[in-house]
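Researcher: Re-running this chain for the archive, since the previous output was lost when a drive failed. Same request as before.
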Amino acid sequence: LGRGFLWPRQPLMRLASDDDVVVCFVAPHRSTMDMAEAHGTDRQPSVSMDEATGSGTIRWEAGNALASFGEGNRRTQLRWGVPTAEERRIVFEAKPWFEELQRKKETRKKQGEGQDVWMDVLEYSRNVCYVMGRVDDPASPDDAQIGVEEDMILCRRAVWELVEMIYVDRSSAHGFVAEGMVQWLQRNTILLQAGEEEADMQLGNLAFLLKNNPVPETQLEYWQCLQRLTALGWTTLVVEALGKHSAWVQWQHEDQQARPQVSVLEAVTLLLRTMPRYKTSSLQNMLGRSFEGMDGLMHFRKGWLQQCQQLIGNHELWAECGGATAVGLLKILAILAGDEETLEGCTCSWLELFAARLLHVYPNLKAFGELGALASSCMKIKGGGEGELDRMLMAILERDTQELVNLSSNLLGPWMMAHITELLTDPAAASAPLSSSEVADFGSDQIEYYRVLFAMSTASDPSMWKVAVAYLAWCPVHGARATESLFQRLPLHQCEPRTIQQALYCCDQLGLRTTADDICRRAGSHAWQQGHAGTAVYWFQRAGDEKRLRCLGRKLLERVSGGPEGCTINEAEFTKLTLMLETLEATGNIPQGDLSFLVGYHSLTRSLKQWKEVKWTLRNAQCTEDQEAAASQLHILNLGMRDRILDLIQGGKAPRRFWFSILFMVVPLMESRDAVFNVQDTQALVDCIEELTPETVLHPPPPIPSDDRLHLLRGTVRLALVRNMARSFTHSLVGT
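Model: Regenerated structure tokens:
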């Protein structure tokens, strides 16, 4: 106990008293239950019960599964890290991208291009992120497709996207990240504003006001939400919302009082439509004027900011406009001009303030140490930083790789850790990549460590063990040992034959011949316990286990002969083995020992039955052609039965206690006029009979005494052999 998938779990605590012992199991890492508790969910370890053997024992099974066997053959299994249906989908769909990346890295390494894999990593990162549900340029920050996802998946995706932007995407990580942060915040706003009631109410109220209020500008929430959206760079929504202002309708009806408001609205809308934006790879339909170079953007931005300031300074226009519209639009212009105080007032969290400052104040800020300082400043102003998610995001922005790994391993689960480490190992990164030093008490680096942990979490699921094998194949140090341990713990009693065949195929691909043989032995033992003798023979043969095949053959022979001393075959019991024996005979792969005797005995009884049928046909044939056909078939049967009898008795396949029964069964063959056995064959059979003693025959039941029964059997067989010898001698003389 305490030996898990590969290495020992954390120490077990034993609390003993005079009467009983209580064993407390300590999980090796934070389980899914702990992670769920941090997110406020109710996910618990999976507990299942079924009937099994092994009462009174506790043991580790495949992966993170702990099984207890109690009274009444009841088996209770406890599993940590059980994935949901959506998580299983992500696991299966992300697996091909992971394997493709590993193959590309191996190829580049062989070609001497191991340092230039970042494009492959970026492609891998994007594909895995799309598997997790990434939507580029969502129509709105509260897109319905995002809202239905689980919190844990949302959290993983948000962290993954930010790591990609800071560590992998060189167009952002080695350049400018303002637009990337705006888009990231828009895609993940549901997660990042969770628990912020003010932010939720603003976005919800805006949609309500635009739909149900013909004069939305009279409501304070309308302007608060527009200011927030402007700060976050979601200008498309801002322009659409400004288009719902009642002044446009009044102007269409030639109401001259709306002229000042329409003039200001047109000016602000034009500034929003011409707002300079830095073009990124994922930017598709962002409103504004996009630039591929930062120099061109900053040059245009200088003139654009002057236009904003000129509009702000037009006091006469604002005096004519007046009211809530003037106040609201002036704040929007202040945001566009980068006024820090206004940005602080209209954002709801440190992340929003951080993105707003990047976009409106520091659009040319680079990701080399400066992001962390700006994020810390925003956190001091707006609060936050106590939660694990905030700490993870701060570690990413500060490019503190090891701190990020430590926090993520506690919160995001083994799947995330097995995949995101690929994004943290770029040797060309500006900061130190993920540490390649060995993990204590493990013997390999962190990358392999987290892959093995992920394999542990999937190995305990009967539908996902193949995923574990696929990931262990990319673990150079512990992969082979861990795979062997996994296959040794596969619950074969719960597996279909197809699953066992898949396990054997995996072993063949990985060169684990010894493990494949062990699987076959276990499958054969289970089949034998269930009474499936033919299946057991098949698996033992595939394992090359002659010892178990001999033992199984001995048990089958005892079953059909009535015990270890039986010398006659019970036809009713023997019939149950017909299909298995015919299959063995057809394949030609006949094991040695008692199974070989049973196959030969079955073949002999079948041939003898056919021989009797052909003899009857020969006697009753009406024409010469039928007689010749029957005679030819009879000759073939004679030769075949002769060889089988000699093989069973003289060849030693049949146990000595069955010799009399076999010879007595073929007395009609020896009494036939065909002289099936020649003189040498007959003499050999006589010599075999002379070797028999009363102890080699089944103690006959009353009322026939042992000596009388033996004398009767021996006399009948000897008489048949003598008559056959005489007939054979005569045939030989005639032939000469």
